[in-house]
Each structure stands twice: as structure tokens, then as C-alpha cells.
Amino acid sequence: MELTPAGVGQVTYILPERCVQKKKRDKIKALLAGGIEKPDVLVQGWVRTRRDSKGGFSFIEINDGSCLANIQVIVDRKIPAETVRQLTAGCCVSARGNLTRSPGKEQALEVQAAEVTVHGTADPEHYPLQKKRHSFEFLREIAHLRPRTNTMGAVMRVRNRLAYSIHRFFNDRGFVYLNTPIITTSDCEGAGEMFQVTTLDLSSAPKANGEIDYAQDFFGQKAGLTVSGQLEGEVYALALSDIYTFGPTFRAENSNTSRHLAEFWMVEPEMAFYDLDDNMDLAEEFVKYLLADVLEHCAEDMEFFNSRIDNTVLSNLTHIAREKFERITYTDAIHQLRKANGNFVFPVEWGCNLQSEHERYLTETVYKRPVIVYNYPEEIKSFYMKLNEDHETVRAMDVLLPRLGEIIGGSQREENHDVLLQRIQAKGLKPEDYWWYLDLRRFGSAPHSGFGLGFERFVQFVTGMENIRDVIPFPRTPKSAKF
Ligand code: 4AD
Ligand code: MG
Questions:
Q1: Which of the following CATH numbers is that of domain 17-127: 2.40.50.140, 3.90.79.10, 3.90.45.10, 2.40.128.20?
Q2: What is the atom index within ligand 1 of the atom nearest the CA of 260?
Q3: Half-sphere exposure of residue 302: CA atoms within 13 angstroms, side-chain side
Q4: N or C: fewer beta carbons within 10 Å in the chain?
């Protein structure tokens, strides 16, 4: 039985006793980062390549996913020939021996394996990851094997670091992490893009007045998958002050683009007593914090993206982490776009939605930095956004990034009950569907704001990956949910 040396804070905890003394595995990242020779290490992972030398040795490269780099293992002549034959790309092995300085130029350290165990072979006739490089389209067809490529490994480590640093950012600032429901009966964006959740057999569903009778459905009313946790987030912000959600979000929009998924993850902070300026300040600080953190903690993977995927990624991220974001009203944005003299596919006039080409023009050509556009026309934004005194615009804000476009959408929320009710009705929504949301404006209403950051879009931006389908383990898009 072991005790931790000084305990954690005031609390001491007891480590479990090991029944059998077993040799502990060494992760490749730790061995390489240590940078020094070490006797008797145990490396476990998947073989990337094997070369045989004339002297009867074999060199294998093993990757265990802990870092981008492989470790070179020298397979001793004493290892049986039938084991060596099984050491092909994709097989899973344990290799035990001394970690020593390598005479080769390619690596500083290597393992002199005295023992090699093959756990799972990978028949070279059939294992699909034989070549060094495959197209991302091809890899999407083998989503169960693509995590074993350099690119997907690096994407997932960066994604993991970003998720960790999102939680750190908010927890360090006293925000409470909130889990909002995945199944819901309210359409937050009011855009009718909800996937339906039902246990009814739609071919023989019970009817009332010619329509499906959802009173007989599982939840007793029509339900769907959430498009955003915001409305429920507001409920808790008006009690705990600062909360954030970070969860899966679903949209049945038929957008087959490199920036849209039907299932994606969204980070949504919601803050009581924040106005639109406070909201924009938090969004800017948040984005910069995440970029600085990933540059510091994912240096090896970021170098890889810079050399193999997009050679501007490192300089862009460094620049954005340091520079102030531009903030302009929607009306000013329209002025800027009209000055471009109609060089757009989608015509520009006050009241139009900003298209990707407009967002890119503002961030890449006019301001050469991230741009926060605020005060959008009421007509093109959701019902919950606070109406400005001009009665034409709402306190909405979108954060636009170069190359990617919209990464964050947010707003100050309408806290006045009657104005909110009127906007719900004007948008053709049913007030009874939002009764509890309206109630928040009847009991202790407060000014408050929040925003949503699309997690995959952010991972896409950070890594420079072209397609959003390659930054989520199992992408869901129209006509595609195979794995
Ligand atoms: O702008 P959106 O629709 O805002 C909301 O849902 C608000 N309720 C957020 C809030 O105020 N709490 O979505 C927020 C972000 C977008 O800026 C975009 O980055 C991402 O979510 N997003 C998508 N990402 C991938 N695939 C899709 N289909 C996406 N739709 C939105
Ligand atoms: Mg939006």
C-alpha cells in the first residue's frame, strides 16, 4: 500500500494495491521527451513501417498515439523469424528492451528490443493504410482506421487540448459547467432545423384532426434533438450568474459544405449582467486564450500542420492571438462591401445575410484580422436577441475569422417580457412553446448575454484542415452516418 507523499491539499489518498507486479508501459511521448537513455522500457503500439537490414536485424517504427513521432525499435536477431514476419504495417506489438542513443541521423533514441510480442497481426494484402499518403476522401471511407494516420492523430490531440483549455478558461473565471438536454421540445433558433425524436411508427402513427397525434408519443408532445443549449443555459445564468455548456448539437440543415455538420459540438457561455460589449470582450479573450494555449502545448502537432497541411497556420494563429479584433456594425460592414463594387456572387444590400464570400472579404481583404460584426437587422436574426432603440437592429454579434468566416454567433438577450412576446409572435412562433422562457422575464429578469462557438469549426481553423469532416471522429452529414 502506498501513500501519496504530501497528499493533495489537505487530503491524502491511498493508491490501489497491485495484485501482480506487472511491468508498466512507457508511452513514447514520455520516452522521447525525457531525451535520455533508460534500461528496460516497454513500448506498446502499432507498427508503421519495417525495414530489414542485411545483418539480420529489423527496424520497426512504432506509434502509440501519445505524440506524432514514432519510436524506432531494433528487433534483435534472436527474435524468432516467424514473429518478425508478422511485423507489418498496422500490426499491434509490445517491445521490451533498453532505450539507447541511436547512431542514426533520423532519431536521437531507439529501443534495442530483446522481447517482441505481436498482439494483433494486419495482413498486408488487406490492410488499407499501406501507402504513406492517402486522400482525406478515401480516409473518410475507413473512419475506423483513419485515427492511425499522422494527420488524424494530430487533429485529435489538438482537439483534446482545445477541449481541456475551454474548460480551464471558464473554470478559472468562475463559470459553472452546465449540461443542457439533448432531447428538447423547444427550437432555440426557431429555424425549423430540428431532427425529430419519436417512438411512433410513422407509417401507422395515431392521428387527431388529420395530423399525427404526438400526445400519444413517448414524451406526450413533439420532441427533437437540440440545436443549441442556449435557452436552458439562460435559465441557469439567471441563478448562478455565469455558466457554460459544451455539448453535442444537431441541425437538420441540408448544407453540404466544408463548414457544416449535422452533428457538431458547441460551447455556449451565458452571463448575467453582461451587455453586448462585455460579450464581445469575453469572446475575443476566449479565442485568443485558446490559440495561445494550443501553440504552447501542441507545438509538435502544430509544426506538422504547418509543414503538411497549410504553411500559414503558425504565423496566422500567432498574429491573431496578439492583435486586436476589429469591431464594426453591420451597417458599416455593408458600406465596406458595397465599396467592393459588386465583385460578389451574392449581391450586397442592407438587410441581406452575410455570405461566406462577404465574411472573407472583410477579414482577409479589408481588415486582415478577425472582425466582430454587431447590431444586425432584426429581420435576419433570432427572436431572443435584444432589440435596439432604432427598432430595426438587434444586439447580435458574430465573430468572423479569416479563411473560415463565422466562428461565433451571440447576442445580448431581450430581457423585456412584452418586447420578447411581441418578437416571438412576429416571427410566427407559438408563445405557448416558450412559456417558461417568457417566465424568466416575469420573475427576476436581468440583462444578460451569451454566445456559441462551433467547436469543429474552431479545430478546423487551428489545424488548417480544409474540411470539417476531418476534425471530428465520426462526421454526420446529409446522406452520411455510416460509422
Ligand atoms: O450562430 P449559431 O446558430 O448560434 C446559436 O446557436 C446561438 N444559440 C448561440 C448562443 O448565443 N448561445 O451557432 C453558433 C456557432 C456558429 O457560429 C458556428 O461556428 C457553429 O455554431 N455552427 C456550426 N458548426 C458546424 N456545423 C453546423 N451546421 C453549424 N451551425 C452552426
Ligand atoms: Mg450564426
A1: 2.40.50.140
A2: 26
A3: 22
A4: N
Residue 260 alpha carbon to ligand 1 centre in Å: 10
Atom of ligand 1 nearest to the CA of 227: 6
Cβ-based neighbours of 389, under 8 Å, separated by 6 or more: none
> Of the bound ligands, which one is closest to the alpha carbon of residue 257?
1
Task: Write the pLDDT tens digit of every residue in 72-88.
Answer: 999 988 899 999 999 99
Whether ligand 1 lies within 6 angstroms of the CB of 407 is answered as yes
134: helix, strand or coil: coil
Using the structure block, give the residue that is written with the C-alpha cell 435596439: 388
Cβ–ligand 1 distance for 264 under 6 Å, the answer: yes
pLDDT digits (tens, 9 = 90+) for 141-199: 999 999 999 999 999 999 999 999 999 999 999 999 999 999 999 877 777 799 999 99
**Alpha-carbon separation of residue 158 from 52, 89, 133, 342, 470 (angstroms):** 34, 25, 20, 39, 13
Cell of 461: 481553423
Instruction: Name the CATH architecture for the domain at 148-191+227-470.
Output: 2-Layer Sandwich (3.30)
